[in-house]
From TrEMBL, chain A:
GO CC annotations on file: plasma membrane
CDD domains assigned: TM_PBP2
Protein name per its UniProtKB record: Oligopeptide transport system permease protein
Topological relation to the membrane, as annotated: Multi-pass membrane protein
Main location (coarse class): membrane
GO BP, one annotated term: transmembrane transport
Keyword check for Transmembrane helix: yes
PANTHER family reported in the protein's UniProt record: DIPEPTIDE TRANSPORT SYSTEM PERMEASE PROTEIN DPPB-RELATED (PTHR43163), DIPEPTIDE-TRANSPORT INTEGRAL MEMBRANE PROTEIN ABC TRANSPORTER DPPB-RELATED (PTHR43163:SF7)
The entry's keywords: Cell membrane, Membrane, Transmembrane, Transmembrane helix, Transport
Automatic annotation (TrEMBL), chain B:
One family name in Pfam for this protein: SBP_bac_5
Protein name: Oligopeptide transport system substrate-binding protein
Gene Ontology MF annotations: peptide transmembrane transporter activity
Superkingdom, taxonomy of origin: Bacteria
Signal peptide: 1-29
Ranges of residues in domain Solute-binding protein family: 82-458
Keywords from the UniProt entry: Signal
From TrEMBL, chain C:
Pfam (any one): BPD_transp_1
TM region(s), chain numbering: 53-74, 118-141, 153-173, 179-198, 234-258, 287-308
Protein name from the UniProt record: Oligopeptide transport system permease protein
Subcellular location per the Swiss-Prot or TrEMBL entry: Cell membrane
Family classification: Belongs to the binding-protein-dependent transport system permease family.
ABC transmembrane type-1 domain residues: 114-305
Cross-referenced Gene3D superfamilies: MetI-like
Originating organism: Salinibacterium xinjiangense
Bilayer topology annotation: Multi-pass membrane protein
Recorded GO CC terms: plasma membrane
UniProtKB keywords: Cell membrane, Membrane, Transmembrane, Transmembrane helix, Transport
SUPFAM superfamilies: MetI-like (SSF161098)
GO BP annotation list: transmembrane transport
């Protein structure tokens, strides 16, 4: 196990290089000159534009720009935005906010999704199952911006249960409404998958054996059905990360959350490679760690999966 | 130029921010003037795109903060008329040589005196090529300015602590009008010593000052409080202003509805239809100094020469501006009758040839057919726009109007980002018509004409060139009498109406609303609320 | 799965138990030697066609496909003929679902938008699933360095938020912005999710008894993967895929909302929903109608996915 974890940690390096190179290339390939946009509709004095361009190495070939970036990383310098702010400061400011938002959303997603999915699976084709199917379908087919606008309008403006937008410190209590929106955006998958897995496992040999042994039904469900059903669900929640970032971009915009999603989207529109790549680098690391945790969770959830050979 | 970044580069969607709920408790005083001079007003803003240095700020988010913490030689009142702020007098006899005298005992908020050098050094800093300032072109008419190399503004000379002189390259009678724009603000000595640090914690001489170190919480808010050193006319009636940065106009509007915001100066288009009903007499919807158009490049196929003139007129007459401003914009735009704006002195709704801006399907078809006789039309008519600026609705409506009238294919052509379309415009690789717009930096007709349509002017993106127009423009610029000058500028516009280098569409209104707790809300000529007059 | 073991077992030759003609259970145990050869997929089809839900969702899906191929059969109104004078009108005889803010017919736009939305959904899903299944199955089954390489490639793609990819792809192909490009943008960066789910299933299935026995019987590894491991691990993928198809259709709407979707000249439900959202306060029905079209199509595909999953799964068949 230790060797396995060590190996996985070492594998972070090529993924890191691959992802940053790919992302750097993508930002580089964006049409349009970010400096030309700085002047607004008026345009910019060409000499000034050239000077700014060379300050950010934008006049160099792609691979040279990338090496400048790598060099910066190893000297602890993530570069600056076109407005002169250090990228590291932006990261330090926005990451905790989005992290908080995502954690709340994932908790809501997991609890609601697994609970609804479990009940629906236990009573397959029953009334609850049908209602939950329709409910999740409506959620699936509703784009997140519609969901967010509706939630804001109904719960914040009409009912006054929450603040319309999130204030500067982004306290836990104000993040609940956007987190619910974010969670509902991804919860449908968890419901459907939990239901499927539960139905499958209810019929598995080990459940029949357990029943034959005379174990109580709640215990069978808890220990045998649920635990085994959670494997694909845990994977899914792990992979929802990317979806959460998309959701966060929209949700953060509508609820004015000073987080990663918005900042990243703005940086993409401005073709600010250092900002975009730094954020994505953090994503890669977060993602790799969460993957590692998911893989370790596998071993815990399913004794048949073993690593370390 | 301070262009409308809200509607362009930054996009309707993107910027990040959040709220700081400070001092925004329930109003304790009545709303009929019984305000509390210590109450802090919360207003919407957006994260400044650059450090807060006057010569490096060319967008609204930073601009309105700078206007409140700096005092220039003049300021503009609600009607756009210039009033002396730091200046005691601005004198000239030939519109080329100016003598500027400052009021005595003016101070920055750190106690440093505002002297003639505070202006001259600041302007030299802003103009120097290697300082890479975004607004450097504001100094281009001052003698000594160069776009190609570092050079001192030799036209500026300090006479004594309170007097300096300005020599322009040629006579320009509206020069004093420009001096209220942020690029012309003075700077204290420490700004020039360390611009980067200054941009984070700027020190000004205006009615407000930053509320200590760290008043600017990036992406969240910026708080200003009254500046005790300020002695001008713009005396704050409140205890400070909290600029809250919003990612979207929709979020700001929701906060106004939810009672978390006092004053909003940009209504999102999703609320155009309802905001006046919802806020009643607390809603604001008045013409502003914003002109919107689309430009057909001079070398676009079928749009040059006599054929081009016919087609340009036909396109213009096939757009039902009234209907589009009523339906798409719900009356928050005013159909254009010229190339400037109704809030500018010298505006006219009865220029010769302005009929070309009226919806006239029969005439449009006739002119289009005449053009077809010269050379038959092929392909489709497209208007390019940036998709991140909320332009899709009107571009579609205009295209449909053209399509339904002329019976040709017409559609919008979105570019994903402002940078993408701007690059093609700058490189002249764009072959379709494209969205253009102009928000005035200072309230003068010339500002709507010279930078855009003069031969080889900086923002002449369609490469229009007319000797007759250039001549009238030059004559008007040198004319010291403002009424006579405006006459010449109107004649110049009549030429534009014949050539239609850009197709005028409408003027964007200033839209806004405010909460029940505040009073004294009035919008300036530049669509920004006059913050110091607001009480709560 | 054991019941589908059709490869002849070498053990059957050696008669450890009484031969068939000697046992009284002959009638029940006998093998119908004249029946047509069967395999998993034929069995699945036989099972599915007996279920009403299969036919209901199937007919709806066929209908949607017909609408998308021949939109002209379902409306006489030109969806591009928009008259601002008719802006935001309610339902009427001429416009049975009313008009949009631009004055276009809502019904005609939904009919003509079908093909775009359906194509985006299907193409994105095909891209996602085919890459995801190959990477997930091979990685999970072969483990070791194959798994390490494939999983890490997946990580690279997964770490890049797909909307960033979409912005870039849609921007680079600015002149060719069509349904295939947007489907590529959505599909090519969402497959690692599918791959990981499948890989997890494969990991838990590959140590099952029937896999061990098949290995012991000398069945080739790829054959085991294809015939035994994959069918037993594919169920969650099918569920996620049908939902993903819905997700792709909705993602197109979200990309439009963010300004990096299809150009407005291309009619799609996503474009309509994203445009109607601005008018939510004044004319919510322009949002509701395309949403209903989207929801019912999505419903049909999800139900179909469930039916296919059940049909493919012999255990689920047995349960009914």
């Amino acid at each position: 196990m230790v060797w396995y974890i060590l190996r996985r940690v070492l594998q972070v390096i090529p993924v890191f290089l691959g992802a940053t190179l790919l992302i750097y290339f993508m930002v580089f390939a964006l049409p349009g000159d970010p400096i030309a946009a700085l002047g607004g509709d008026r345009g910019l004095n060409p000499a000034v534009a050239d000077a700014i361009r060379s300050r950010y190495h934008l006049d160099e070939p792609f691979i040279v720009q990338y090496f400048y970036y790598l060099q910066g990383i190893f000297t602890g310098n993530l570069g600056t935005t076109f407005s002169g702010q250090p990228v590291s400061e932006i990261l330090a400011r926005t990451l905790p906010v989005t992290f908080r938002l995502a954690i709340i959303a994932i908790v809501i997603e997991a609890v609601a999704g697994i609970l609804i999915g479990l009940i629906a699976g236990l009573r397959k084709n029953g009334a609850f199952d049908t209602v939950s199917l329709l409910f999740s379908l409506v959620l699936i087919s509703m784009p997140i911006f519609v969901l967010a606008f509706l939630a804001q309008f109904v719960f914040a403006i009409q009912l006054g249960w929450a603040r319309t937008t999130v204030s500067g410190e982004a306290p836990f209590s104000e993040l609940i409404l956007p987190a619910f929106v974010l969670a509902f955006f991804v919860v449908a998958n968890v419901i459907r998958l939990t239901r499927t897995s539960v139905i499958e496992n209810l019929d598995a040999d080990f459940v029949r054996t357990a029943t034959a042994k005379g174990l109580s039904r709640p215990r069978i469900i808890r220990v045998h059905v649920l635990r085994n059903s959670l494997i694909p669900v845990v994977t899914l929640i792990g992979t929802d990360f990317g979806l959460l970032i998309v959701g966060a971009t929209v949700t953060e915009g509508i609820f004015n959350v000073p987080g990663v999603g918005n900042t990243l989207f703005k940086a993409i529109l401005l073709s600010e490679a250092p900002t975009v790549v730094s954020f994505v680098t953090v994503f890669v690391i977060v993602y790799l760690i969460s993957n590692l945790l998911v893989d370790i969770l596998y071993a815990f959830l399913d004794p048949r999966i073993r690593y370390g050979k | 130029m301070r262009t409308f970044k809200i509607a362009s580069a930054a996009g309707g969607l993107v910027l990040t921010a959040a709220l700081v709920l400070t001092g925004c408790s329930a109003p304790d005083a009545g709303d009929n003037g019984g305000g509390n001079s210590t109450a802090v007003i919360t207003v919407n803003g957006s994260e400044p795109q650059n450090p807060l240095i006057p010569t490096n700020t060319n967008e609204v988010g930073g601009g309105k903060i700078l206007d409140s913490i700096f005092a220039g030689l003049v300021y503009y009142d609600a009607t756009g008329a210039p009033k002396n702020d730091v200046a005691e007098s601005i004198e000239t006899t030939d519109s080329q040589n100016y003598t500027i005298t400052l009021k005595a005992d003016q101070k920055f908020s750190n106690g440093e005196a505002v002297t003639a050098s505070s202006f001259v050094d600041a302007w030299n800093y802003g103009a120097l090529l290697s300082n890479e300032q975004l607004s450097s072109y504001f100094f281009e008419s001052i003698e000594g300015f160069s776009y190609d190399e570092d050079s001192e503004l030799s036209g500026l000379a300090v006479v004594d602590d309170t007097t300096f002189t300005v020599k322009l390259k040629q006579p320009e009678s509206d020069f004093p009008l420009r001096l209220g724009y942020s690029a012309f603000f003075p700077l204290p000595a420490e700004a020039l010593a360390d611009p980067a640090a200054f941009g984070e914690n700027p020190i000004g001489n205006g009615p407000y000052m930053l509320d200590g170190e760290g008043a600017w919480q990036h992406d969240v808010s910026l708080k200003v409080i009254p500046n005790p050193e300020y002695t001008g006319d713009r005396v704050p009636q409140n205890g400070g202003v909290d600029f809250i940065f919003y990612a979207t106009q929709d979020a700001a509007y929701a906060d106004l509805q939810g009672g978390n915001l006092d004053v909003l100066d940009a209504v999102p288009d999703s609320a155009f239809a309802s905001f006046e009903d919802e806020f009643g007499d607390r809603a604001i919807n008045q013409p502003a100094a914003v002109f919107q158009s689309f430009t057909i490049p001079q070398d676009a196929p079928h749009f040059a020469g006599d054929e081009g003139k016919l087609r340009r007129a036909a396109i213009s007459m096939s757009i039902d501006r009234k209907q589009i401003t009523d339906v798409i914009f719900e009356g928050t735009r005013t159909p254009a009758t010229d190339f400037t704006s109704p809030v500018i002195d010298g505006y006219s709704d009865s220029l010769k040839g302005a009929d070309v801006l009226k919806f006239n399907p029969d005439e449009a078809k006739k002119l289009w057919a005449e053009a077809d006789d010269i050379s038959p039309w092929d392909g489709q008519f497209q208007i390019s726009y940036n998709a991140d600026g909320g332009h899709q609705g009107w571009v579609e409506a205009v295209s449909n109007s053209i399509k339904n009238t002329l019976g040709i294919e017409a559609s919008g052509n979105p570019y994903p980002t402002f940078a993408a379309i701007r690059t093609e415009i700058t490189d002249r690789t764009i072959k379709t018509a494209f969205r253009t717009g102009w928000q005035a930096d200072y309230p003068a007709l010339y500002n709507f004409l010279g930078p855009i349509y003069a031969t080889d002017a900086g923002s002449n993106d369609g490469d229009y060139s007319s000797a007759e127009f250039d001549g009238l423009l030059r004559e008007g610029a040198g004319e010291p009498d403002i009424t006579a000058a405006n006459k010449l500028f109107q004649q110049a516009q009549e030429i534009l109406l014949k050539d239609l280098p850009a197709t005028p569409l409408w003027y964007a209104n200033a839209t806004g609303a405010y909460s029940q707790g505040v009073s004294g809300v009035q919008f300036g000529w530049n669509s920004v609320p006059i913050y110091h007059e607001i009480t709560k | 799965m054991e019941s589908n073991q059709s490869s002849p077992s070498p053990l059957s030759e050696t008669h450890f138990v009484a031969s068939l003609d000697e046992t009284p259970l002959q009638a029940t145990d006998s093998v119908a030697e004249d029946s047509k050869p069967s395999n998993l997929y034929i069995d699945a089809w036989r099972d599915a066609r007996r279920r009403p839900l299969f036919w209901i969702s199937g007919v709806f899906i066929v209908l949607v496909i017909v609408v998308s191929v021949f939109p002209g059969l379902f409306t006489q109104i030109d969806p591009r003929l928009c008259d601002l004078g008719l802006s935001n009108n309610g339902a009427s005889a001429a416009h049975i679902l009313g008009t949009t803010k631009q004055g276009c017919d809502v019904y005609a736009r939904i009919i003509f938008g079908t093909s775009t939305s359906l194509t985006v959904g299907i193409v994105a899903t095909v891209i996602n699933t085919s890459i995801g299944v190959i990477f997930g199955a091979l990685g999970g089954f072969f483990g070791r360095w194959v798994d390490a390489i494939l999983s890490r490639i997946g990580d690279i793609f997964f770490a890049i938020p797909y909307f960033l990819a979409a912005v870039v792809i849609m921007s680079v192909f600015v002149q060719y912005r069509n349904v295939f490009v947007i489907a590529l943008a959505i599909g090519a960066f969402s497959w690692p999710g599918t791959a990981r789910i499948l890989r997890g299933q494969v990991l838990s299935v590959k140590n099952a008894d029937y896999v061990t026995s098949a290995t012991a019987l000398g069945v080739g590894r790829l054959t085991i993967l294809w015939r035994h491991v994959l069918p037993n691990s594919i169920a969650p993928v099918i569920v996620v895929t049908t939902i993903g198809l819905a997700g792709a259709i909705v993602a197109e709407a979200t990309l439009s909302f963010l300004g990096v979707g299809l150009p407005p000249s291309v009619m799609s439900w996503g474009n309509d929903i994203s445009t109607a959202q601005r008018d939510l306060r004044n004319n919510p029905m322009t949002l509701v109608w395309p949403s209903i079209a989207l929801t019912s199509t999505v419903l049909a595909f999800v139900v179909m996915g469930e039916v296919i999953r059940d049909a493919l799964d012999p255990k689920a068949r047995a349960r009914r």
